[in-house]
Amino acid sequence: MELNVIGQDDHQDTGSSCSSGSCGSSNDQMGHLPQEIKDKVKNHPCYSEEAHHYFARMHVAVAPACNIQCHYCNRKYDCSNESRPGVVSELLTPEEAVMKTKAVAANIPQMTVLGIAGPGDPLANPERTFSTFRMLSEQAPDIKLCVSTNGLALPDAVEELSKHNIDHVTITINTVDPEIGAKIYPWIYWNNKRIHGVKGAKILIQQQQKGLEMLVAKGILVKVNSVMIPGVNDEHLKEVSRIVKSKGAFLHNVMPLISEAEHGTFYGVMGQRGPEPEELQDLQDACAGDMNMMRHCRQCRADAVGLLGEDRGEEFTMDKIAAMDIDYDAAMKKRAVIHQGILEELDEKEAKRARLASASVPAAAKPDTRPVLMAVATSGGGLINQHFGHATEFLVYEVSPNGVRFISHRKVDQYCIGGDTCGEKESALSGSIRALKGCEAVLCSKIGYEPWSLLEDAGIQPNGEHAMEPIEEAILAVYEEMRVDGRLDATPAHVAELAKA
Ligand code: CLF
Ligand code: SF4
User: Fold this and answer.
1) Is there a single domain that holds both residue 74 and residue 213?
2) Half-sphere exposure (CA, 13 Å, Cβ side) for 205?
3) Which of 76, 116, 174, 468 has a Cα-to-Cα distance from 325 of 20 to 30 A?
């Protein structure tokens, strides 16, 4: 088998490896990083798990063309490398994109990052992409610029990217092996020709690796996205993770393949399955030994607006924006004050965490106390501040004597929408309970009697006593209550039995 292209002598460590082996820990995800890297990521919702509770991102869909074909893509929809398959975004001109960005920034001051992620490949549309970045870096210098690419055209674009003060680039790298690549990419478009199979995949891989090295050499932070395709590249992604880390990538985001037949992709039609949540988590854990992992990706749309997990795009259609009167200089001043406030709050949280870590936590006295999964309903701000019935997703954390670490989010249908929707309500509620499988507690601001008793029956303890408290503190408090009540003495098998019942 022809493996690959990749030399490791040019190792450039950004210092991003997880020293504790518990990457993704909301406690220490950033602790070991150099200050200049911390400063670059502290208000980027994708590059910092902590930041995603506070800061929002938006995408503008300015890039229609693509220069490769992925088997998980149907060109009728947005690029699946950085967005949810099956979604169609409204294509904007660069001028419209700038208007939209300024309108969103003025109305959602927590929006810190503008990304271009489709609907095709941004670097296959260099004029449209760079014209948008150029105008924005002049007119809205307080917004971070971010771009996502399949990497084929990346080496030729690095110089231009660095001119626009773009600190964050995502490359989708699904493989470093051309044989595997040929199973994912039927062709690429290169030097005005279609190149098929292993030959095309080899060129793509070389370009991705070269682009990664060039970006790192420029001091640009690189996130690598990989789509986990069971039976095709799942085992191999550990090797990908190791190699991209050795070349200086900052973060690895392993995303699940979504291959619904109705999306009409090759994989969808051929019945290629996506991974189960447990398979994805196992792979993320396996990669984490060598790599700082992203676990809070929401596979957003190429025109997403808002906090990760929410989409406020409907508030910012071009006709609504045309009616807005935006004074961007005034908006920038307001934004600066709000950003400063959030950053001070985050600094305080970090200091408090450090104090907590050095104080003796009772559960820590028993280092063999078993870990517990807890789900949280939150609408942002790092707080337990959402009604159970209003949640469209739950954040799942693992708590153990080592602290609290973010594991994943689980999407659910909101079941409490009012009105006469009883049948739907029941099925959405049982769907929520299924989605919380494996969790032993769910923390929310409020919860009704009916879901309370159904959750209890399923072995998941509802808890509304920590409303408006910071997530990690609330989780630690519940863990301590469980320890005092002797519930941590139950074996995991017993817990699984309860959950099954
Ligand atoms: Fe957008 Fe991507 Fe920049 Fe984030 S999204 S271009 S790095 S600003 Fe973030 Fe969305 Fe996941 Fe992307 S949650 S799909 S990782
Ligand atoms: Fe589709 Fe994106 Fe792949 Fe291009 S790079 S084929 S737009 S998923």
Assistant:
1) yes
2) 26
3) 116
**In this structure, are strands 305-306 and 56-59 parallel, antiparallel, or unpaired?**
antiparallel
Choosing from 55, 57, 146 the residue with most ligand 1 atoms within 8 A of its CB, the one to mutate for a pocket test is 57
Q: Which protein residue has the closest C-alpha to ligand 1 atom 6? A: 115
Q: What is the pLDDT of residue 437?
A: 86
Q: Report the Cα 316 to chain-centroid distance in Å.
A: 23
- pLDDT value of residue 417: 54
Residue 352 included in any domain: no
CB atoms within 10 A of CB 430: 13
**Residue 415, CA distances (Å) to 71, 177, 418 in order:** 35, 45, 9
Q: Are strands 187-190 and 193-196 parallel, antiparallel or unpaired?
A: antiparallel
Tell me which residue range forms the domain holding 374: 369-500
Measured between alpha carbons, how far is 265 from 86 in angstroms, rounded to an integer?
10
Minimum-distance ligand 2 atom for the alpha carbon of 119: 7
Look at residue 360 and tell me if it is in a domain: no
> Please, what is the angle between helix 126-139 and helix 94-107, to 10°?
40
pLDDT at 5 over 60: no
Are 89 and 118 a contacting pair, CB within 8 Å?
yes
| 11-60 pLDDT, tens digit each | 333 333 222 222 233 444 555 667 888 888 888 999 888 889 999 999 99
Nearest-atom number in ligand 1 for the CA of 59 is 1
Domain annotation covers residue 262: yes
Rg for the chain, CA atoms, rounded: 23
Greater model confidence, 23 or 375: 375
Residue 364 lies in a domain: no
Residue 409 sits at the vertex; the CA angle it makes with 405 and 410, to the nearest 5 degrees, is: 135
Give the CATH number for residue 269: 3.20.20.70
Q: Within the chain, how many helices (H) and strands (E) appear?
A: 15, 15
Question: Looking at per-residue confidence, does 25 or 75 come out higher?
Answer: 75
**315 and 379 together in one domain:** no
Q: How many domains does the chain have?
A: 2
> Do 101 and 217 lie in a common domain?
yes
**Is residue 250 within 8 Å of 223, Cβ to Cβ?**
yes
Contact call for residues 15 and 311 (beta carbons, < 8 A): no
Residue written as token pair 């209890």: 456
pTM summary value: 0.81
Residue 227 has pLDDT above 70, yes or no: yes
**CA–CA distance, 291 with 285 (Å, rounded to integer):** 10
Query: Which ranges of 223-322 would DSSP assign to H, the alpha helix?
Result: 237-246, 266-270, 277-288, 318-322
Q: What DSSP character marks residue 487? A: G
Residue nearest ligand 2's atom 6 by CA: 69
Q: Report the pLDDT averaged over residues 123-141.
A: 96
Mean pLDDT of the chain: 85
